[in-house]
Structure formats: C-alpha cells, structure tokens
Amino acid sequence: MTKTMKPDWIAVDWGTTHLRLWLMTADGQALQRIDSNKGMAGLRPDHFEPVLIDALRDHLEPGVTLPVLICGMAGSRQGWAEARYVSVPCKPPGIDQATHVPTRDARIDVHILPGIKQDKPADVMRGEETQIAGVMQIDPDFDGIVCLPGTHCKWAHISAGEVVSFRTFLTGEMFALLSEQSVLRHSVADDGWDGDAFTDALDQAMSRPAAVAAELFSLRAEALLTDLDPVTARSRLSGLLIGLELAAAKPYWLGQDVRIAGAAKIATAYADALSAQAVPVTILDAETVTLAGLTAAYKTLQDA
Fold first, then answer.
1. pLDDT tens sequence across 66-77
2. How big is the CA angle at 37 (ends 285 and 98), to the nearest 5 degrees?
3. CA-to-CA distance for 244 and 238, rounded, in angstroms?
4. Radius of gyration of the chain (CA)
5. What are the distances in angstroms from CA 79 to CA 41, 192, 209?
6. DSSP state of 58
7. DSSP character for 41?
8. Could you tell me which of 92, 139, 141, 135 has the C-alpha nearest to residue 113?
C-alpha cells in the first residue's frame, strides 16, 4: 500500500480460528490483506477490540474514524457481541440489520453483520451469509444452489434474490477429527491426493451410505495388512465423507446449477464429486465472494 492509497474502510472475516482483515477503498478495491491466528475461540469479549487495534496499528490515524464491517463468529454468543439471526426465507442481511458495537477507540466504527437461521430443520450460519451475498452480487440473476465447503459445509437454495433454505454438514470437522484424533491418524497422510481413490470412495459412499462406518475402519485394517498408501487412505477418507454428505444433500443439488465458494483444494474436490453426478458446477474464489458481500454491506452504510 502506498502513502497515497489509504483505506476508506476495513472488511473483516472473523472466524473461529482465524482473523482476516482487508484494507478497502470506497469502491471495493482491496489494498492489503492482514491475517492473524487470533480467532474467536481464543478470545474473551474484551479481547476483540485490542486485537483489532493491534492488527490495524499501522493504518489508523488520529482524528480519522474508519468503518469496520465484520462477518463471522465475532457475532456469536461467545464472540465480541452477539449479532441477531435473520430467519429464512430472506435476503442476505445487510448493514441495516447489523449490530453496532461501541468501542473505546474512536478511530474505528464497528458493525457486525447478522447471521441467518432456520427453524425446521434447525440450522444457523454466521459468515457464510456474507459469501452468499457476494455470489448474488457477482451474479444478481442467479437461481440455484450455493455450496460453501469448509469445516461446516453449507448448502443454500437461492431463489428470487433470497435464501430459501439451507443445510449444514459437519463433513470438514469429521475429516479433521478422524484424520487427526482417531485410530485412522496412524494411516492417513497429512497431505497429498489420489483422485481415483477419492472417486471410488465417493461412489461407494453414495451407493451404500449405511456401510461407511465399516469402510472407514477398513482404511486402518488395509494399512496394517497391505501397507495401504497414506495418501490413498487420505483421499478415500475424503471421498467417503463427501460421498456421505452428497447422498444426504441430493435434494439440494439434483437438477440444480451449483456455485461452489471455498478454498481451492476442497472446492475442487466438491466440484469433481458433483461433476461426476453430471451436475453443472462453477467454482468461485472464497475471498472474492466474501469481499463482494462485505462491500455490498459497506455501500448500504454509505447510503444510510
């Protein structure tokens, strides 16, 4: 960032384990990204403002107040300040429904965007609604499904500019628990990819989901008996879990146009899995849609 390019506002995605900030211009250009491991899970409510000020210490000026728009877990019950949930069906909530957080430092003006809730079946999201808003900014006429893979994968049905319904799957968290804390940790590589093994396991889980628990233990057994390659084991574990998810999420993706927004590796895995089911898929960059959603909220703040 040059001296002549100063931010007009700050975009923030505050997750459970990570904090991401972008110094933004009024027209939505990102000047700089700042990353921190100071996620919500490790903070008390009184920690959030000092962490934010510390991250922005080189970019705050006396007498200048920067709007700060936050999405994600900073608005949870255990976060900085609890932000409301908006019920589906609804448009992605904007700044008019945000929680304004009082701060001691006058150089920041903090707003936390709301999440979205669904009563039946019970479900909630925080942060993903901003990504959905970003998808709708990029393609205002989009009707279809937005898939947001991650620790907790979201499938959201979008129609007429609204989130009609959504469903959350613990697939990413299950993968982490099984690969890092279960008996499978002895058999699964930390990285690497075997596309054929992934596809075979995916098909296996989708055709026989009731047998997935047994197939999971087979990964350990094969490692002991036939020296199953750890990369193959990792890919099969991913295929089994994503296949189990796709089998349950079929009402969302069957016959639909799907947009996937997520980190490159996992987004590609979901795209490959859906393409194998002849589902039309478009991958969108997660950071791009997050910033598009936050920028849309900032523009409504400007108009307020």
1. 999 999 999 999
2. 65
3. 10
4. 21
5. 8, 35, 36
6. T
7. G
8. 92
User: What 3-state class would DSSP assign to 109?
Assistant: strand
For residue 49, CA distances in Å to 19, 112, 172 come to: 13, 13, 30
Alpha-carbon gap, residue 274 to 145, rounded angstroms: 12
Distance (Å, whole) CA 185 – CA 188: 6
The answer to whether residues 258 and 279 touch, using CB atoms and an 8 Å cutoff, is: yes
Q: Please say whether the beta carbons of 281 and 271 come within 8 A.
A: yes
Whole-angstrom distance, CA of residue 42 vs CA of residue 25: 30
pLDDT digits 0-9 by tens, 172-208: 999 999 999 999 999 999 999 999 999 999 999 999 9
Per-residue pLDDT, 1: 42
CA distances from 259 to 106, 134, 138, 228 (A): 40, 12, 11, 34
> By CB neighbour count within 10 A (0-12 exposed, 13-18 middle, 19+ buried), where does 80 fall?
buried
The C-alpha atoms of residue 71 and residue 112 are separated, in whole angstroms, by 6
Token couple for 196: 């054929």
In the sheet that holds 9-14, the strands lie side by side as 30-36, 19-24, 9-14, 66-72, 108-112, 99-101
Contact 212, 240 (CB under 8 A): yes
pTM beyond 0.70, yes or no: yes
> What is the spatial distance between Cα 170 and Cα 242, in angstroms, rounded to a whole number?
10
Q: Are 68 and 50 in contact (CB under 8 A)?
A: no
pLDDT at 2: 44
Alpha helices in the chain (DSSP H): 48-55, 128-138, 171-181, 195-207, 212-226, 230-248, 250-253, 264-275, 286-303
- And the tokens for 51? 């962490």
